[in-house]
Hints:
The chain is built from five helices and five strands; from the N terminus they run H-E-E-H-E-H-E-H-H-E. The protein has helices spanning 2-16, 47-54, 75-96, 109-112, 133-152; strands at 21-25, 37-41, 59-62, 101-105, 157-161. The strands form two sheets. A three-stranded parallel β-sheet has the order 3-4-5, covered by helices on one side. The longest helix is centred in the middle third of the chain and has 22 residues, at 75-96.
Amino acid sequence: DDVRRRGLHVVQRGVERGRLARTGGAGDEQHALGLREELVEVDLLDVSKWDIVTQGCEFVVHTACPVPIANPKDVENKLFKPAIEGTRGVLNSALKNGVKKVIVTSAFNALWVGNEYRNITEDIWAIDGNEDVYNTAKIKQEKLVWEFYEKNKEKIEITVLCPGLLIGPLL
Length: 171
């Protein structure tokens, strides 16, 4: 639910600045903001739909990652696969369709966990292996993003945001 709200804020700000927003989301999501937006029903693991979302876009803001309330029983399929393969699908589609820039929302956890008493820089990664599967998913997701960037940095710009806290009105 937080991911959906974060995505709605991104859509709202883009539209307020005169942009047409095309959003990808699950079929049960309602984007009733009364804004200039186009909703394309997608699943993070259905890479065939991401081309519909990214075609004709100048930039893509990828905020989607499952956020479990408790560790799911099937961590691989309920969390890791959608986080990693969904991100890979968005990145590949963006590259294929000539998107100039992709902005990915990661989490401060991808850097901070296990490094609480160190200066955090872009060269520091969280220490994986803790029991919080969401942290592990965010670490894997962000590492994938930077590996993709290293292979494609002549073709696409990537920015990763690592917020520590999300606040604001619910949309």
